[in-house]
Amino acid sequence: MVSAQDNARSNSKVAPPKYHEPVQGTVFHGDGREEALLKHLQSAPALSTAETANLSLQDRSQRVLDTIHEFGKGENRYLMSVGDTKGRQVESLIKERKPKLILELGTYVGYSGISFSRHLLAVHPDATYPGDWSESDSPEQRAGYISLEKSEVYATTARGAFELAGLGKVIKVLTGSSTPNLRTLREKLNMPKPLKFDMVFLDHLKPLYTIDIKVLEEEGLVGPGTVLVADNVVKPGNPAYLSWVRATPAQKREVLAKGPLKAQPPTTPNPSEDQWQDAFHEGPIEETRWVPDEAEGITANGDPGLVYSSEMLDGWDPYTGERDACEVSVCTGREE
Question: Which of 91, 172, 190, 203 has the most CB atoms in a 10 Å sphere around its CB?
């Protein structure tokens, strides 16, 4: 029997239509398109209460996803969304592994939040979701999708999209810079140890991937059993992050013993297309010792004893047709 994951991977081999030229080096967000998207969603006849009241959650949320995607095809409307070819594979992973608590770094306009969170109610129908969390409930009974977004404008657009998709109570959006927020996230969410996230989706500022994972490791918010899903590891690429999650504990400890770098090192180039799966297994590269200014002074060594098993889910940019991928890293245990 062919699994949903196999079907999703098969579909990812076909490039989607091209609607935009590559956007790197241009203005492709933060110019008003996100506010325009929210107005478009709120005025779309197909998303009105009258049209969606009798739809299932899957059909209702899919209408919102389709409307977001169609908006992004327009001139100067490119959207930084995970898209269908990568997103469907992550959805299959969620249905397979059934995570209860998912953390997203980089909400943007809410496309990935809708895609991934809509499966939680089906796999955990009796759980308590963020809209009903309180001081008195049992943290172990909680499920939900926690999303961090730096921009208040993007967060407002995403919240509007979540409500239209029928997912308002499933998703909790927190605003502010990711790295300092992660240091206090356990307290903010009242997550007593050893409670941790079952899945983390990284889709924010690329230089922050590595430091943010290290903070999550130190705080015990990821650990054995957690699945990390990192978007855009091919386009634009993220050698530093890949070298961290693909390294052995011994390799990580050896690099950490050198101490942090005070200046940004030269950027490691991406490998050729046929070498992505085999690259960055020689240990953490120099960039993992450098903390970008956007981390706002937060430093972290992570938990070098954690062991990850990683693979790439190939896909495409949903608008430019460029090759891209998500790195899926399952934390399989810890070596002391």
Answer: 203
Cis ω before 45 (30° cut-off from 0): no
Q: How many domains does the chain have?
A: 1
- Over the range 281-302, which residues count as b (16 or more CB within 10 Å of their CB) and which as e? eebbbbbbbbbeeebeebebeb
Question: Cα(44)–Cα(148) distance, rounded to whole angstroms?
Answer: 27
What would the two tokens of residue 193 be?
Answer: 């140890």
β-bridge pairing 323-334 and 306-316 = antiparallel
Mean per-residue pLDDT, 118-127: 96
| pTM score of the predicted model | 0.95
Distance CA 89, CA 10 (A): 10
Pick the closest to residue 119 from 154, 153, 144 (CA basis): 144
pLDDT digits (tens, 9 = 90+) for 129-141: 998 888 777 888 9
Write the Ramachandran bin of 280: left for phi over 0, alpha for psi from -120 to 50, otherwise beta. Answer: left
The CATH number assigned to the domain holding 92 equals 3.40.50.150
- Give per-residue pLDDT as tens, 140-191: 899 999 999 999 999 999 999 999 999 999 999 999 999 999 999 999 998 9
How many other C-beta atoms lie within 10 A of the C-beta of residue 85?
Answer: 24
DSSP 176: S
> Which residues constitute the domain of residue 112?
4-14+22-334
H or E element: which one contains 163? helix 152-164
Q: How large is the C-alpha radius of gyration of the chain?
A: 19
The answer to whether residue 5 scores a pLDDT higher than 50 is no
Looking up tokens 């492709």 gives: 28
Q: Half-sphere exposure of 123 toward its Cβ, with a 13 Å CA cutoff?
A: 19
Tokens encoding 214: 């290290």
The sign of the CA dihedral 95, 104, 69, 59 is positive
